[in-house]
Amino acid sequence: MSVILLDDRFAQLMPVLNAIDSCLVIGHIDPDADCIGSMLAVTWALRRLGKRCDPVSSDPIPANCAFLPGVDEIMRAEDVDIESYQVLIVVDCEPDRTGLALPLLEQFESVINIDHHITNMNTAPLAWVDPTAAATGELVYALISRLGLQLNRDAAVMLYTAIAGDTGFFRYSNTTARAMRIAADLIGCGVQPDVISRHLNETHSWAYMQLVRQALSTLSRTPDGKVAWIFISKDMLDVAGMQWNETDSLVQYPRMLAGIEVALILREIGPNEIRVGLRSQTYVDVSRIAGVFGGGGHQRAAGCTIRLPYQEALTALLHEIKVALASPGAVAWGD
User: How many helices (H) and strands (E) does the chain have?
Assistant: First the structure.
């Protein structure tokens, strides 16, 4: 394993990791590939050290991550006996975004936070947050290296999936030379990029494709062509038999339009409750827009939940995006 250490801020974690006997590993609500891959890789590492370590999720595992080694061991938050674990390790988000585990945080002796989101405010007692990392999987890779563990193929698949997921298979602006070097090392451990790509991006059900067709019929944009969006209603999801968190990739369609700076996907998940995914191309920081509505994420990819009817939620979003586009160096559409 090639050692690529990002910094020494996680040195404070080592005594805690060495001392604990049991821990839970949890990620954020609506988990994605980076979240699931990082959770599983941390679990793999600590079990190699002889710790009792179990992964847990507040929300269902996305179907495109079902191939990952160990994914069937991820427990539901409501089924976990919290009192039987010493430490909670939160990966790929701040503790406030862990969903059902949030009210239970104070029951743990220690809470460790490993994340790369710029919106993470380092509120955990032991927080290692590095926004320069392309994915939390990079940080877990560095941690495993510092622990002196030799990666096997299963762990490499977990980490590669995490990093590839958050970089759009090394197409997004957060792709760095460091991410590519780590990916090369993981491929050397037996990862097959084509296989992982098929699982994450290229295998969909008939119901999913019918949903894509319906969603594309809602494709809209602002008069200046700088913002585009699609909408998925609760009825669309129910007819397709799908969960809203299985539709994140559909934001790629408004993002493909020439001249687009901000792309949105709005999903109706309940009465007056809209889950929003935001992407930007070059200069709008969508994490700030998501933050206005209590969400967060990255400069180029973020999410939030708006508790308003669809049209009101869309109007509120477009207002905030218009403000962002009108910032120095940007051009907003006319009133």
Answer: 11, 12
Distance CA 143, CA 274 (A): 36
Q: DSSP state, 84?
A: G
Structure tokens at 37: 């891959």
In DSSP notation, 261-280 reads SEEEEEEEEETTEEEEEEEE
Q: Give dist(CA 302, CA 1) in Å, integer.
A: 32
Instruction: For domain 9-201, give the CATH number.
Output: 3.90.1640.10
User: Are residues 91 and 38 in contact, defined by beta-carbon separation less than 8 angstroms?
Assistant: yes
Beta strands in 46-160 (DSSP E): 52-57, 75-76, 87-91, 110-115, 126-129
The ranges assigned to domains in the chain are 9-201, 207-325
pLDDT, one tens digit per residue, over 157-208 is 999 999 999 998 898 888 999 999 999 999 999 999 999 999 988 777 788 8
Which of 104-108, 134-138, 174-178, 327-331 is predicted with the least confidence, judged by mean pLDDT?
327-331
Alpha-carbon distance of 283 to 173, in angstroms, equals: 11
